Please model this.
Amino acid sequence: MLTLPVFEWVRPQSLDEALAFFTQAPAESLWIAGGTDAVPNLKHRLHEPKRVISLAGVRELHYVREDDAGMHLGALLTLRELSEHARVRAEYPALAKAASLVASPQIRNMGTLGGNLCLDTRCTYYNQSYFWREALGFCLKKDGTKCHVVPQGKRCVAAHSSDVAPVLIALGAEVEIATPPAQAGGAASLRRIAVDTFFVGDGVHNNVLLPGELVTRLIIPAASRGLSAGYQKLRPRGAIDFPMLSVAAAGRTQAGAFTQLRIVVSALGAKPRVLGQLDALAVGKAADEAQFSAIAAAAYKQCHPLINVPYDHEWRHEMVPVFVKRVLRDAFPKG
Model:
């Protein structure tokens, strides 16, 4: 039986209080929201904090609001709430769909939007018990110096596994980040960046968050209203499993032709990949099956799955064009 390590548990009631707790012991603290991924990782000794800071009591991060700037989603919104919210379903059904496909109802009842965005990367050689990892020889992501997937590599290639991130990137969303007082010259501060630039290509720590920083809000800008969007997820079963491949698309058409298109492919490497050259491939051209196939072929050339999850990487590669076409049909059903 896997047990939890010994740690102090604190449950702040406000964002300022949460940031203050982290500042007291920045090298020894761990944020936890729903805990659906963090708790198993604690049992595997992948995280070994002396203090766990629960965000469950920080109610100021739990909301859905709309204004002239766009839709504002609090980081502690649960995935179930996100998937069932009437305004989200009406304006951004692809985001609601992505949230609805995470794991199981029990997980979605606990898991949060911010937690899914910041989900730890996954790998065959990382998400194992301490005994298993010690027997093999620890990996670059935790306790070791060698990547077992790319032995000559200098960066971890554990797979990005968030469902909401590809859709948020496709929609041009921004993420708001709170910085603790000690890092902000004596006062807590907030900054906003595009979700696209939130992620970096290193599986050890695949986002820009500094120690103690916290995602507080996601903003889908008003300019994204009216986008046609879709989301598709490949996994072994219809529930529970993390994606082997995920694809999101968002764009606009006029008179049956693309005027705007963004496609994001994820779960293949440490960060989501925004497909390149889509302006030349799509804009001004018909949103039809022939063009869907051309875009899918380009995606196949750009995406190269690694052996970082326990599924055949060549088969996952073959599924890239299949799922790109599916997501385009999903987003543009009249194509």
